[in-house]
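Appendix B, Record 12. Input sequence as logged:
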Amino acid sequence: MRVLALDGIDKRGLDILREAGMEVTARGKMNEAELKEALQKDYEALLVRSGTKVTAGAIDAAKKLKIIGRAGVGTDNIDIAAATEKGIVVVNAPEGNTVAAAEHTIAMMMALARNIPQANAALKQGVWDKKKYLGVELRGKTLGVIGMGKIGREVARRARGLEMRVIAYDPYVNLDQLGRLEVELTSLEEVYKEADFLTFHLPLTKDTRYILSAEEIKLLKPGARVLNVARGGIIDENALYEALQEGRLAGAALDVFEQEPLKTSPLQSLDNVILTPHLGASTEEAQAAVSVEVAQDVIRCLKGDPVLNAVNIPVMRGHVAEVLHPYLQLAEKLGSFIVQLMEGPILSVEMNFNGELAEHDLAPVNNSFLKGLLRPLLADAVNYVNAPLLAKKRGIRIQENKSREMKYFANLISVKVQGRRESHHLAGTVDQAGELRIVNLDGFSVDATPEGHMLVVPHIDRPRIVGPVAMIIGDEGINIAGMQVGRRERGGEAVMLMRIDSAVPRDTLNALRQVDGVLDIRYIHL
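Logged structural output:
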């Protein structure tokens, strides 16, 4: 397995990859043409920091790429949509630089409060001017935090240690999630109005671009100070410049910019602005940590294990992973089984989860089912990453229902697939021994193991059906490993579910269809 590592990835992560038996090629920053050429070779993993842009063109050129790892939090230099469509996992390292970014935010805030860089520069030029650099204390001031993710929380924790009042806005976080952290959650408008210092800890998305623009700046207190150690583009830099120049704001400290590297900006001309060249994660400890974190996910991915920090597939951790793991396998089997019953295009999928499963986020289970459903149609073009996207492109409507109600099984997955010509229903569970079981097929109660070669034989419930079917299969030299018959009423319709040891030739399937009382026959291979 070959790994291409760019942008000066810390060697501690690369050493872990090599110890795992992988061939690692380390290079510096690449442009698109260079990356396209490199990825046409048999690299299965690509690691980058923020320097190299992993474009759709580069991704399209990749021959064997399975995973792209970003040694850091932000992934805006990676075309995630293109990677997802091609079935490539994208992972980042959200934990490794948390402390470094939080500490840099606090350092910038202190420097902003006490004019440290300006005073230092003046004194080095021989100017002693204490009055000019009169500062403010942080104690008792209000810090507004926009975004209470990992870094936002660490900033808030440190600010509380400095005896600051901390107010925050994050629509995806509630007070219970913040635990003992003494933070007041409020509206975005209130944070803008009340903050003496305002700091942003958000990803750059269509919703967060220019979340602080000219209109929002009007809401800020006169003399407020603004910090951004998150992503360039969150703040409208031109609007910020105008407010600083006019004296409506006391100062700003920025570590990230709309265009990087920053070359020319009106902000560089202002004495009340502190600028650093994207140093938020630039500590020895953070660079080692993110390198190791992303390397470990690369190893998991290439070994076929679930990754922990994917940004384009749902992730399971800890106890949830243990609970859901067998149901991932079951869902994929159900998807593969039911699509082989179908004729013609699939229009919709309804997934029902009963029992303890309903307590969890079941997106990974849904992805597994869709992979199983689409794999017989699209072969290797579909995987856990791109299955939902491919289903959407094929116009398949997907509905998920959950219920804690239980009847016969502690947990049950039941699926209904509607096609243009027909529909089928299938249900399965995991028994106490951890074995996968199919327990219902089109309303017939059965108990079968979904594996290997199988025959589904709808028929009339009467004598001299099972025997002739078994005889024809035996005459072909195919051994029967197990058989289940389900019926609703005596003499009505029934279904035979048969596990066999090898594939069934087409001529044999045709012969089985001629057995009097057999309504249809489907060969399933899992």
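The radius of gyration is 30 Å.
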